[in-house]
Design goal:
Rossmann fold
Length: 492
């Protein structure tokens, strides 16, 4: 992969005589082959350059899950711009604030989102459909150092941050994921992640297209019809989050519906070992768990398909370095010892925009990204993620890991999912409180859960209370909103 930019890599792939006529992208009921996709990308680029876009300027993309949207994203990059895909669920006022704080002055929108785009700020909105009559034109001298993508992320801090990534970052992630998953032109991926999410653009759009594979974009994920979609489109792999796979357990795949799949991937949110095993039994294929974050472009570690360790997120991708340091310090801990997960390598973000947006999110010090995540490396380099530094519950001076308590609770067959947070206590400072969702028709008993935790861990880890909810609140893609649960626990 010798390209110096993502558009160059994808356009070079599209020029390959063996790939040019192959299907590239399915969306909105139609296929786009590689030749047509390349033409659409170059026309979007030409449209933006004709309107005066300058290298490094930031462009907000307002669009649905369509082939035009994918071409719009890649076209922004091909014009030397920086693509910022907008979450369509956000109100225009919130989007306007984000665009101003990140100095995003250009807006590109499809017909269905032009009105929303116009409401975010004064000034003209460029219509994506106008690209069809534009002359194909691209910037030919992009380098790995050029800015490429601006990712708006709430992450685990709950505060919006904009992460700036370069073409070098995107290429690094593409190389690592392609090498680990072995994606080839024979592959077809089912795309069911949001386009504004790093997984949605990096691993489910850029990686397969850079490898000459095909992408099928679902309008949205529905557990009830998902297996029918797989049977119809015959993907060779799928990528989702724990929530997707958990919901599939209630539906039996028709005979032969999954025969095209060689593996499934899970990322972007925690996956318990118990759920991992249940999903593999249900689907009959390996489930490959991975770990990453926007500040490291996308994926940092992933289980090898043929050598996965359930309960871990695998080993570092090619070009990446993963270490576990003592919190605050830069001293590595021994294998098997919990500490802060730190990352180094060419996938680390250029920075936050503006730099003051960092807040309490991950930071880069001496070439290492301090993720704020807790974990441990085993002797073979497999990484286990156990929680967040800021989620540690300090009970009477003793540090308790919510992740370990949650793992113990999930051994109760009456519990489908759970989250443990700290609640204020006048004597001990904090105590653990467990929020659980019951399996269908099951009855959750607080005493049984407390005894289960006591037998698996220590007395200090026993939840002071067990609260049953219909569903755990979520933030982002399949991530539990721990902040909301902490507020709920403090009021009880």
């Amino acid at each position: 992969m010798n390209a110096t930019s993502i558009p160059q890599r994808i356009l070079d792939t599209a020029r390959d005589p063996a790939i040019r006529a192959r299907p590239a992208l399915w969306a909105g009921g139609r296929w786009l082959d590689y030749a047509a996709l390349a033409d659409a990308v170059m026309r979007v680029s030409g449209l933006l350059l004709d309107r005066g876009l300058r290298r490094g300027e930031r462009v907000a993309l307002f669009a649905g899950r369509t082939a035009d949207a994918a071409a719009g994203f890649l076209g922004i990059l091909a014009a030397g711009g920086v693509a910022n895909v907008i979450d369509p669920r956000l109100p225009p006022e919130e989007v306007g604030l984000r665009l101003r704080s990140s100095d995003v002055r250009w807006r590109l929108a499809d017909a269905g989102h032009a009105e929303v785009a116009a409401a975010t700020a004064p000034g003209p909105v460029i219509r994506l459909e106008d690209a069809r009559s534009a002359l194909p034109r691209i910037v030919t001298d992009l380098t790995p150092a050029d800015d490429a993508v601006l990712l708006s992320t709430t992450g685990s801090t709950g505060t919006s941050k904009a992460v700036l990534l370069t073409h070098g970052n995107l290429l690094s992630n593409t190389r690592g994921v392609a090498e680990r998953t072995g994606v080839t032109p024979a592959d077809r991926v089912l795309h069911m992640m949001p386009m504004h999410h790093t997984n949605g653009v990096n691993n489910l759009l850029i990686v397969p297209l850079a490898c000459g594979a095909s992408v099928v974009m679902l309008e949205r994920f529905h557990a009830e019809t998902f297996f029918d979609e797989v049977a119809a489109h015959r993907p060779t792999y799928i990528t989702g989050v724990a929530t997707h796979y958990s919901r599939l357990l209630a539906h039996a795949p028709p005979r032969g519906a999954l025969s095209s799949l060689r593996f499934a991937r899970s990322g972007s949110a925690p996956l318990t070992a118990q759920l991992h095993r249940e999903v593999e039994r249900h689907l009959g294929i390996p489930l490959i768990h991975s770990y990453g974050l926007s500040e490291a472009t996308c994926t940092v570690a992933m289980n090898p398909t043929a050598a996965r360790k359930i309960g871990t997120v695998g080993t570092a991708l090619a070009g990446q370095r993963v270490a576990v340091f003592r919190p605050v310090e830069e001293t590595p801990v021994a294998p098997g010892t919990e500490g802060e997960i730190c990352i180094a390598g060419p996938s680390l973000m250029k920075g936050y925009v503006p730099p003051s947006a960092h807040g309490d999110g991950p930071s880069i010090r001496n070439g290492w990204l301090r993720t704020g995540d807790l974990g441990a490396l085993d002797a073979e380099g497999y990484l286990t993620v156990s929680g967040r530094l800021k989620e540690i519950i300090i009970r009477g001076g003793e540090n308790l890991s919510p992740g370990r308590i949650e793992e113990a609770i999930l051994h109760d067959p009456a519990v489908r999912s759970c989250c443990v947070v700290g609640a204020p206590d006048p004597d001990l400072g904090e105590v653990p409180v467990a929020f659980v969702v019951a399996q269908g028709g099951a009855s959750v008993r607080e005493r049984a859960i407390q005894e289960l935790v006591r037998s698996a861990l220590t007395r200090a880890c026993v939840p002071a209370r067990v609260v049953v909810l219909d569903a755990l609140p979520e933030i982002g893609v399949g991530k539990v909103d721990r902040g909301a649960l902490r507020r709920l626990a403090s009021k009880a």
